[in-house]
Amino acid sequence: MKGMHWMSILGLALITLGGIFSFFGTQLSDKKGQEELTNKIQEKNNKIENINDKNTKLIEQNSDLITTTNEVSKSNKALISQSNDLLSKIENYQLEVDKKNKLIKELEEKVNKVSKGIVNYIHWNGVHRIMKAGEIITLHNTVHNNAFIKMTELSKADKFKELIKLCNEFIPNNDEWQTPYIIKALALLNLNQVTNKAEVLNLLDYASEKSRDDIDYGLEIMNILLSLNEKERLMKILKYFSLNDIESIQDNSLRNRLLELKKA
């Protein structure tokens, strides 16, 4: 019995020691596992920090890139605007060159005619005056004179649409007779002054440029410009005429108004 008692005690001690060893073993295992887990978490945190650092750098680079892109965009807009301005200036310059070349050609043709002793002038009313070798020939029954008579009849009858149609037949390629341009302008004004004013001014500008110092055409054009209160355009034409030219005008009202502007 005594031997069994000691065996029981020994067994109990062994069980107790086993429990203690098991406890410490578990603790050691848990501590090791905890350390490994902590190390892994630290590694993940380090990776996350590295990623965050890289993301921060990328964000800064993107911000710089966006700023640079905006600056480039502004520069491109400025360049496009400058290019458009330059193209517009080139286009305007080309138009001026074309006008001057056309005027030079017309002057050369006139000089060529004069050198041959031939001058063919078409009056406001379509009458031709031809000077050849010192002799002056006046022709009344011409295509232009007959057209002028028809234009006058249509104007008096207030048939302005028919009048415009007739003027259009003589306008293309007709730089020596400006009457159709001026009469068409009058017809357009009679139809509708507000909506047709821009076209009227274009017609008068062209006619005044071609007729220059011809008092017959100039009076008709200036009379219309006075009615439209286009003083700036009127003054450009008025400079081509002397006081004597103005004083010879038979219409008292028109003469006095033009004299007042000429002397101003």
Polypeptide structure, described:
The protein is mainly α and 264 residues long. Helix content is 79%, strand content 6%. The chain is built from nine helices and three strands. The protein has helices at residues 2-115, 143-156, 160-170, 179-191, 193-211, 215-227, 231-238, 243-247, 252-263, and strands at residues 118-122, 128-132, 135-139. It has a three-stranded antiparallel beta sheet with strand order 1-2-3. A hairpin with a 2-residue loop joins β2 (128-132) and β3. The N and C termini lie far apart (155 Å). Mean pLDDT is 76; it is low at 107-118.
Features:
single chain; 264 residues; mainly alpha; Serine Threonine Protein Phosphatase 5, Tetratricopeptide repeat; three-stranded antiparallel β-sheet; 9 helices; 79% helix; rod-shaped
